Amino acid sequence: MKILEKKNFLNTAVKAAQIAGEIMANNLFSFKKINSSTQRDIKLELDVKCQKKIEMILNKSHPEVAILGEEGNAGDIDTELRWVVDPIDGTVNYTYGIPHACVSIALQKRKVHKSAVGSDFETIIGVVFDPFTNELWTAVKGQAAKLNGKKISVNDGALKEAMIAIGFAKDKATMDYMMPYFTKLAPKIRKPRMMGSAALAMVYVACGRFHGYIESKIQIWDVAAGGLILECAGGEFWRIPRKKGKHRYAVIASNGKIRKPIERVCGQLDPDGLL
């Protein structure tokens, strides 16, 4: 893909993320209709509205590109190019009026050969937008990651200095797996954090606010954009696909220095949540 094409795709993703983010910001303290909910997750009508708005913008500029989204797919998602969209990452936070949520949009390209992490696709463009802080993280594969147009890099601190975000997923089995992992890790680091947005955790690692982010069960739309941004900022996006469930991964996102020390303390993260 030529440089101008990449720039065009990036600009389209930024536009879509910012417009969806504006909808989020305007409705943070409004009544929110819940389409469905479980003990640990919520789906809003606004999730669907934001994805439809994103789809409209992406399709207007690039009608040939499919969309793999949290709120549904459009087109053939196994074709040459596809967008990967999370219209509101951090929906539970957002539902309760907590301004820690974002829009995540990635562009993926089909690979000639399946990668070591079992994926047929690689992310070539990543955009994460936080409408509540007006922070825009962007990356194009092979180029430096940026936050509001300025180059960013990871924090090179060691494990004992680390701020690490930890996710516990949405089901009891995964939570039961992660609790012992958390108990082993917490005394070895400076502070653990549970923030409620995987995409923001990823980009916080990318720009040096966190040193790592760990989750044993996460969907591709939560981490596709943030993973590229992290790699372009000098970090490591370690992930392994889960055997059950399509587009699901176990993830350790880090500054590139603390994954192996984490594994020495806690053991290797099992993608299927078995100690």
Q: Which CATH architecture of the largest domain would you pick?
A: 2-Layer Sandwich
Query: Spatial order of the strands in the main sheet?
Result: 4-3-5-6-7-8-9-10
- Mean of all residue-level pLDDT scores: 91
The H-and-E topology, N to C, reads as HEEHEEEHEEEEEEHEHEHEEH
Question: What's the CATH topology label of the largest domain?
Answer: Fructose-1,6-Bisphosphatase, Chain A, domain 1
CATH C-level name of the largest domain: Alpha Beta
Q: Assembly type of the shown chains?
A: single chain
Number of helices: 7
Query: What overall geometry do the principal axes of the alpha carbons give?
Result: globular
Instruction: Characterize the largest beta sheet: strand count, sense, and whether it forms a barrel.
Output: 8 strands, mixed
- For the record, the count of structural domains works out to 2
Number of strands: 15
